[in-house]
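During the reporting period the student researcher (J.K.) took over the structure-prediction task from the postdoctoral fellow and processed the backlog of single-chain submissions. One of the processed entries is reproduced below for the supervisory committee.
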Amino acid sequence: MELSELVERYDDRLDTDAYAEVDASANGLQVGPEAADVERVAFAVDAGRATIEDAVDAEADALVVHHGLSWGGIERVTGTEYGRIAPLIENDLALYVSHLPLDGQQELGNAAGIADLLGLVDRVPFGTVGGEYIGQRGRVDEPFEPDELTTGLLSQLDTDGEDVRAMTFGPDEIEDIAIVTGSGVDWLEDAAAAGADALITGEGKQKAYHLARELEINVFLAGHYATETFGVRSLQELAGEWGLETTFISHPTGL
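J.K. obtained the following structure tokens:
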């Protein structure tokens, strides 16, 4: 498959253009000539140097990630930027990035993956940035107790041995759940206003403790990395369906 076709297919499924004005990430093809051919694709959460080197070792033609290299522009290609970009160019390894589009995609995205994991029904898009959705909300047929939901997330997410932290200020029976992966506590008030019993996200902020307490809502912090493996794995599955060889590169951060 030509790289340009792979990029076009992903951009179309993820509605990449819709997020162009609201996402600091330069989504889409960040590194690579569109005329290249692609047979093997590596997938990872982050475009760190270790991840890129693993993709080179796997002899991948392209690397697809959630967190890329360009967040509003690169002024100088020195230091860590050079250390990441040089092996991409030297090894003809293209880099495709999908940040907020992969959070908001309602079937393939990160929030959708956690919703699948929990068996949420009656799902609706949730949480917006500049009018574009980045999360999902739904309910469960059999309510969770807070400890039960904590244990379930811990057992099924790649937390790298770290605990799932819970702020249990909401109902003892959790039926309505909002999800914004990664750094999503800024949507805590939106979740409470929507009637959610809990918000599941990755990492927290100091102010979230008191806000959750005052709003009487449960909050589960399951790790930024751990909550954002689902989208790239969905894109990996798509690539396999398109006849490409794939590999997933795991570098959990525990954060």
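The committee noted the following: Residues 3-14 form the longest helix (12 residues).
J.K. will present the remaining backlog at the next meeting.
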